[in-house]
Design goal:
By secondary structure, the protein is an alpha+beta fold. It contains 9 helices and 6 strands, in the order βααααβααααββαββ. It has a 4-stranded antiparallel β-sheet with strand order 3-4-6-5, with helices on one face. A two-stranded antiparallel ribbon has the order 1-2.
């Protein structure tokens, strides 16, 4: 287990908080200053942290795991924690797929399945290892994501699991263009998520 994580991970958590806390209606937008006092995602603190993590991403720096786990614990106390973690997982995966070369993404889309699927699986493995500290293996007709120590799993119950489930589903969908249904499976250590791979 690494003592650090890619800076995109905490960035995704704060981007999701900001997205969820953003005013939805025009009427709410009129009271932005008042909302900033009530909604964590609209605070200057979150804005400054987003800038800090975005700068770290640009410089290729990593962030201390303990710092990210503390952020996840804070989010886990929210009533809408599941929604925030799910949004963060999707955001991270979408951003991570953008780091895959355009050539590889094009080949995955245009090659026949028997050639495209190994390329897609290889990309999913690399992205999961780098951004989720996870290991992806193909097991029969399924692919399995294993994360030994999820950063969103300490004290958040099932809400924290939504981060990895959403990230895994988004990676698979964006790299295979097929819908992915991800389920959590029991594990003696860490956490595991499984998705169908047989028809991809």
């Amino acid at each position: 287990m690494s003592a650090t994580v890619d800076a995109r991970l905490p960035l995704s958590l704060l981007e999701a908080v900001r997205l969820v806390d953003r005013p939805e209606a025009l009427e709410e937008a009129e009271y932005v200053e008042e909302l900033r006092l009530k909604r964590f995602g609209l605070s200057d603190t979150v804005y400054q942290q987003i800038r800090r993590y975005a700068d770290a991403v640009r410089r290729g720096e990593r962030t201390a795991r303990e710092e990210v786990m503390a952020l996840a614990r804070l989010i886990g106390r929210r009533a809408d924690a599941h929604r925030v973690f799910e949004s963060a997982g999707s955001w991270l995966a979408a951003d991570a797929v953008g780091t895959v070369s355009a050539l590889r993404r094009t080949l995955i889309r245009v090659l026949p399945g028997m050639l495209a699927r190994p390329l897609a699986l290889g990309a999913v493995r690399r992205l999961a290892r780098r951004y989720l500290d996870g290991d992806v293996q193909r097991v029969g007709a399924h692919v399995l994501l294993a994360v030994e120590q999820p950063v969103t799993d300490e004290g958040q119950g099932t809400a924290g699991h939504a981060f990895y489930a959403a990230a895994f589903a988004e990676l698979l969908e964006r790299l295979t263009t097929s819908p992915a249904v991800v389920t959590r499976v029991d594990a003696a250590r860490g956490a595991r998520w499984r998705a169908d791979w047989g028809r991809r």
